[in-house]
Design brief:
The chain is an all-alpha fold. The protein has two domains: about 5-55, no CATH class; about 65-275, MetI-like (MetI-like fold), CATH 1.10.3720.10. It has ten helices and two strands, in the order ββαααααααααα. It has helices at about 15-55, 65-80, 80-110, 115-125, 130-145, 145-170, 175-185, 190-225, 230-240, 245-270, and strands at about 5, 10. Strands 1-2 form a two-stranded antiparallel sheet. Helix 3 packs across helix 6 and helix 6 (about 145-170) runs antiparallel to helix 8 (about 190-225).
């Protein structure tokens, strides 16, 4: 069925009319797609603000979001927040780089060699369940309260998720790809770099995303115990001064930074692994 354009008198295909009518629905759905994740947080903030203003929640314990925002802006303007974030972020970068690289190498060795796995099964089984926070006093005793102990804690926290996901990715490589590479008489290096690792990349990126999250938790835990700068130190010092707003600014800053890092990793993954989408 065709329609007639009242201006020109020409026929308009039915499909064009349907497409034109459906366009506002598509725009509405897209708007809802972006607004829906904001609905629950905004509602919680509104309820939080109202309860604080009515005195149901004590501002000294949980300040209203408006007060936290003002403190956040003041600390951002003065540079204090950026100073502590920069210190923590630099520690995370160094510790995560060391831990993830070691996890990648060890994971490849374990994934490719049953003998290596057998040789390390007791060590990995013994060390993996130990909480990261338990390593902090031990490493402080061994290395002191300098940067080395904090970076080592972060490296340990980043090591395990990368290791486990690398092994999982290698073990789940499609055997057909390996058989094809073997038929064409490819050497082990080519097999590793062209077949095994590309197949394991989705799992490796999962380990990286988990590892960077644990790295942030590790650095804050280390800074809470022994540090003179960093977000963890800022939170602990604010607690001693009963500055709940500053504490929450530190906590929210960690969350925002972690969210941005995770988003960057997911964008990088989407660009490198277009074939996996």
């Amino acid at each position: 069925m065709d329609y007639i354009d009242t201006n020109t008198g020409n026929d308009i295909p039915e499909a064009a009319v349907i497409s034109e009518k459906a366009q506002p629905v598509t725009i509405t759905r897209r708007g809802g797609y972006f607004l829906l994740p904001l609905f629950v947080p905004v509602m919680l903030l509104v309820i939080w603000e109202l309860l604080s203003r009515k005195g149901i929640i004590k501002p000294t314990i949980l300040p209203p979001p408006s007060d936290i925002w003002l403190v956040f802006f003041d600390m951002l303007k003065s540079g204090e927040l950026l100073k502590h974030l920069t210190v923590s972020l630099w520690r995370v970068i160094k510790g995560f780089s060391a831990g993830s690289l070691l996890g990648l190498v060890t994971g490849v060795l374990i994934g490719l060699s049953p003998r290596v796995e057998r040789a390390l099964v007791l060590i990995t089984g013994l060390l993996r369940p130990i909480p990261i926070i338990a390593w902090v006093p031990v490493l402080i005793l061994w290395m002191g309260i300098d940067e080395a102990s904090k970076i080592t804690v972060i490296a340990i926290g980043s090591f395990w998720p990368v290791l486990l996901n690398v092994v999982h990715g290698i073990r789940n490589t499609d055997k057909k790809y390996v058989e094809v590479a073997t038929i064409f008489e490819k050497n082990r290096w080519t097999l590793l770099t062209k077949v095994v690792l590309p197949s394991a990349l989705p799992s490796i990126f999962t380990g990286i995303r988990i590892g960077i999250g644990i790295a942030w938790m590790s650095v804050v835990g280390a800074e809470l115990i022994a540090a003179s700068a960093g977000v963890g130190y800022m939170i602990m010092y604010a607690r001693e001064l009963s500055q709940a707003d500053v504490m929450l600014v530190g906590v929210i800053s960690i969350g925002i930074t972690g969210l941005l890092i995770d988003y960057a990793i997911r964008r990088l993954e989407a660009r490198l692994l277009k074939w996996n989408i």
